[in-house]
Design goal:
Blueprint lengths: L1 H4 L22 H6 L7 H14 L4 E3 L5 E3 L1 H9 L4 H5 L9 H7 L17 H21 L7 E6 L2 H11 L4 E7 L7 H9 L10 H14 L3 H8 L3 H4 L12 E8 L6 E3 L4 E3 L7 H6 L25 H20 L7 E6 L1 E6 L3 E8 L9 H5 L2 E5 L5 E5 L3 E7 L4 E3 L5 H4 L8 E5 L11 H15 L7
Parallel strand pairs: 3-4, 4-8, 5-10, 8-15
Antiparallel strand pairs: 1-2, 5-6, 5-7, 9-14, 10-13, 11-12, 12-13
Length: about 475
């Protein structure tokens, strides 16, 4: 059922989403026309409301016609200078000045939204965004308004879409603000495809675990649920650690336990990938034989959609992986020249910075020495619904490998290692905390930060003619 419903070629962007947004000077019909129904209100409704309510309300005048900065912009100006190291992860931030607000206030900022089919390649989604930008600019120009650039605000995977779009049409984009982007990919994507959607995290309370379980019911708890959808979806595969992700990020270790539970001693990593002998992560993804493989092709085609395709589902999988690799090679380290970015670095919302397969072995049952070579050559002889893999080593020892818990500070989805990927490539990068990945634009600090970045990007107007 998932394969039939969530096939990248069969789904489309739904523009009829909830518009449960408080009054912000825009009629519901205009919200709909501007694409607000294309994105998830539960995650982005607060941001849409805040931007529409405050971006064009910069100054007020008293009864003596004296100008004052409105309270929201005072709050933005103050927030960016308050405890920047703890709050924003940087030692200093250029202040937002009243003179800059004067220039900012010379322009209008209508708020649009653009959804995309995340199962398709980000390259394809970026073309949809490009068409939307062209339509918006043409709409205003037809009505005799000066309009030739837009500012893009992105969330998560949308950052990859926006970067691809900006690389093709940089002249139509004034600047980009990236929020919690998996700039280098997310090991979490490996975990969900290989083992099913996780239902727990080391610091989850009962309610958080319940929510995670409900999400897993939808996304798929088992690899048999996730593989038919994600393995043939270029967009999903573009969320995997890419060629720029710090490596190695895939490990296999064996924990040695003494007899009778008297002592436990963890071994060093027996397997570390990608490495110097296999530096390309896409070769790892194309490998469908190793016990630690990302994709089990036997789980990929339960609806028999590819039975008449020459090469079958394996060809379809390889095509999707090749598309993802081509996209990442083409995008590289490109960022629009006027880009800002923030990411989560919260220890209370850990994410997978690495994937660690861990097995437990009792010294009383050890019959052969375990090495990187024989663990690498092990054969998968069984896999449970929870993703645990039974691995036979030299046909003599069978170990049960499961994936260890999240190991990195982050936002529960993107690790700080990947979130910090834009470092040195954007105007300023902010390390923030206090939110989960999907709720980052509901956090008051990130809304203030977004307003600050928009005002700074607006200073680009008029430059270079």
């Amino acid at each position: 059922m998932r394969q039939l419903i969530l096939h990248p070629d069969y789904v489309e962007v739904d523009d009829s989403g909830d518009l449960d947004v408080a009054s912000c000077y825009v009629e519901r019909s205009v919200m709909r026309e501007r694409g607000w129904g294309e994105i998830y209100n539960g995650s982005y409704g607060t941001l849409l409301f805040e931007l529409q309510s405050h971006l064009e309300m910069t100054f007020r005048f008293d009864t003596f016609n004296k100008r004052h900065i409105r309270n929201r912009w005072k709050e933005v100006m103050q927030a960016m200078q308050t405890d920047p190291l703890n709050r924003w992860g940087v030692r200093s931030i250029p202040p937002l000045t009243e003179a800059e607000l004067e220039k900012y206030a010379e322009y209008q900022y209508p708020i649009y939204a653009c959804g995309y089919n995340w199962l398709q390649s980000c390259g394809e989604s970026s073309r949809r965004l490009e068409r939307r930008i062209g339509d918006i600019i043409a709409w205003w120009q037809t009505r005799k308004h000066e309009c030739d650039k837009v500012i893009l605000i992105t969330h998560s995977m949308g950052g990859l879409v926006a970067r691809a779009c900006a690389k093709r049409i940089p002249d139509k984009i004034l600047g980009v603000i990236h929020g919690v982007m998996p700039a280098l990919g997310a090991p979490l994507a490996y975990r969900r495809l290989a083992c099913g959607t996780e239902c727990d995290s080391p610091l989850n309370d009962t309610l958080d675990s319940y929510k995670a379980g409900k999400f897993a019911d939808i996304a798929g708890r088992r690899p048999a649920d996730t593989t038919p959808v994600l393995s043939v979806s270029p967009g999903a595969l573009e969320l995997l650690p890419n060629q720029l992700h710090p490596r190695p990020w895939l490990h296999a270790s064996v924990v040695h336990s003494a007899a009778h539970g008297e002592r436990r001693e963890s071994s060093s990593d027996c397997l570390r990938l990608p490495n110097e002998s296999q530096p390309n992560p896409y070769d790892l993804y194309r490998d469908m034989h190793s016990w630690y493989r990302l994709i089990n092709p036997e789980l990929a085609n339960p609806a028999n959609l590819y039975r008449d395709l020459k090469g079958g589902v394996i060809k379809k999988i390889r095509e999707a992986i090749n598309t993802a690799e081509t996209f990442h090679d083409w995008l590289g380290n490109y960022y629009h020249p006027a880009s800002f970015a923030y990411y989560g670095t919260d220890k209370s919302h850990p994410a997978y910075g690495q994937i660690r397969w861990v097995a437990h072995e009792s010294s009383s049952t050890t019959t052969i020495p375990l090495t990187a070579a024989n663990i690498d050559a092990g054969k998968c002889v069984g896999q449970g619904a929870d993703g645990v893999r039974q691995v036979a080593i030299e046909g003599k020892v069978v170990l049960s490998f499961s994936i260890d818990a999240q190991d990195s500070a982050g936002d529960d989805t993107v690790s700080q290692q990947s979130g910090a990927g834009p470092n040195g490539k954007v105007r300023q990068l902010f390390a923030t905390h206090g939110y989960r990945h999907q709720e980052s634009y509901k956090h008051h600090d990130t809304i203030l930060l977004t307003c600050y970045c928009i005002a700074k990007i607006a200073q680009e107007l008029g430059k270079n003619g």
